[in-house]
Design a protein that fits this description.
Length: 254
C-alpha cells in the first residue's frame, strides 16, 4: 500500500513541479483573507477565506507556480488487492479527477497549536475519474481482464479530511510541510464504465459493466481504502505546492 502511495506522490511531483525558494513576502492568492491566530472565530475565518479563494485556486495561480487543479491529473495509480471478494491488480494511467472546484466546505476545526486542521466537505457535482486502465483478477465470483479507457463517478461525495502540518523556518519566515493527510469519504452511488474488457468482446464487456454497477457497494467496500489513500495523496501534493510558496505566518498572523 505504501509503495502505491509513494508512487502517486512521485507522480504528483512530476506533474506540479518542484517548489522553488519563495521570496520573503508573497502576495496571497486572490480572494484569500488572512486570519488571526487569536481570533475566537478562527474556524469561521478560515472557512470564509477558503470559500473565497477556492474558485481562484482551482484555476491556478501562475505567480506562485500553482497549476490548475480541476481537472487534477494523476499520471499513475496502482491498486493491488491480493485477497478477498475483489482480488485484482488495477492500474490507472493519466487519470483526470474532475469537479474538485465544486467543493463546499461545511466545517473546519483548526488546532494551530498542534499543527493540524480538519475539514468536512462535500462536492456539489459528481467527482469523476477519467483515464486509461488495465485490470486482471476476480470481482466477487467472476474473472475480469481488460485494458482501455475508463470512467468512474462518485455521486454526492462527502469527505472528512485531516491535515497534519510540520512548521519550519526559512529566510526568516515560517513555512509548513504537509506531514500527512488522511481522508475518508461517503458516496450515495458509484458508476463504473470500463471499455475494452475481455479483449474487446462486447457481450462479455457489457455484461461485466452491468455486473459492476449492480454490485458497486460490495466493490467499493473492498477498494475504498485504496481510493481514499489515492485522493489524500493527490490533495497532499496540491497543498504542499501551495504551502511551499506561501509563508504560513502570512496566512495565520499573530
Amino acid at each position: 500500500m505504501m509503495a502505491n502511495i509513494m508512487k502517486i506522490a512521485c507522480c504528483l511531483v512530476c506533474v506540479f513541479g518542484l517548489a522553488l525558494t519563495a521570496p520573503s513576502t508573497v502576495k496571497l492568492p486572490k480572494g484569500f483573507v488572512q486570519c488571526k491566530r487569536s481570533d475566537p472565530k478562527l474556524n469561521e475565518c478560515i472557512k470564509n477565506s477558503l470559500k473565497n479563494a477556492v474558485p481562484h485556486l482551482v484555476k491556478g495561480v501562475p505567480s506562485l507556480g500553482i497549476y490548475p487543479i480541476d481537472p487534477l491529473r494523476i499520471t499513475q495509480l496502482g491498486i493491488d488487492q491480493g485477497s478477498g471478494p475483489v482480488s485484482i491488480k488495477l492500474n490507472f494511467r493519466d487519470l483526470d479527477i474532475s469537479n474538485i472546484g465544486t467543493v463546499k466546505i461545511n466545517h473546519i476545526f483548526a488546532d494551530l497549536d498542534n499543527n493540524n486542521i480538519t475539514f468536512d466537505v462535500q462536492f456539489e457535482k459528481p467527482i469523476t475519474l477519467d483515464g486509461n486502465y488495465d485490470i486482471k483478477g476476480k470481482v466477487i465470483i467472476l474473472p475480469i481482464t481488460g485494458d482501455g479507457l475508463c470512467k468512474i463517478s462518485l455521486d454526492n461525495l462527502k469527505a472528512k479530511v485531516y491535515v497534519y502540518l510540520k512548521p519550519f523556518v526559512k529566510n526568516g519566515n515560517t513555512y509548513v510541510d504537509i506531514k500527512d493527510i488522511k481522508l475518508t469519504f461517503t458516496t450515495t452511488r458509484m458508476h463504473l464504465k470500463l471499455d475494452n474488457l475481455f479483449k474487446g468482446d462486447k457481450a462479455l464487456g457489457n455484461n461485466m459493466n452491468v455486473f459492476l454497477n449492480e454490485n458497486w457497494k460490495d466493490i467499493l467496500a473492498e477498494l475504498q481504502t485504496n481510493f481514499e489513500n489515492a485522493l489524500a495523496a493527490a490533495f497532499s501534493g496540491v497543498a504542499q505546492q501551495f504551502f511551499s510558496r506561501v509563508p504560513y505566518n502570512q496566512i495565520f498572523i499573530e
